[in-house]
Amino acid sequence: MNPDRLAELEEERRFLLRSLTDLEREHTAGDVDEVDYRELRDGYTVRAAATLREIDDGRRALPDRPPVNWRRRLLTAAGVLIAIAVMWGGNGFMPLV
Question: What pTM did the predictor assign?
Fold first, then answer.
């Protein structure tokens, strides 16, 4: 799945869950009658469920991240430290250790 599409779905999920929370608050306050509340809640719930399924399917379709090559990272860090030590020592500077 396209990562941009996945981001759009994540935003839609946030919107729908926020809308459900707002609807619940408005219903509790008496601003939304029972019929409208049920209709809106059911609609939001169906859309949220479909969006969550699509997000899950999209994440499963993404390729797995390659494992971290710790040996390579350690060798690179060691090489950088050696290069710094050589440069520092080669310029006549005394390390502040």
Answer: 0.61
Span 43-67, pLDDT tens digits: 999 999 999 999 998 888 777 788 9
Structure tokens at 80: 């950088």
Distance from C-alpha of 13 to C-alpha of 51, rounded to nearest angstrom? 6
Q: What is the pLDDT of residue 43?
A: 96
- 80 CB-near residues (< 8 Å, 6+ apart): none
If 0-12 CB within 10 Å is exposed, 13-18 middle and 19+ buried, where does residue 16 land? buried
- Give the number of other Cβ atoms within 10 Å of residue 21's Cβ: 11
Gyration radius of the chain's alpha carbons: 27
Q: Which residue has the tokens 């494992």?
A: 67
Q: Which of 41, 43, 49, 47 is nearest to 20 (CA)?
A: 41
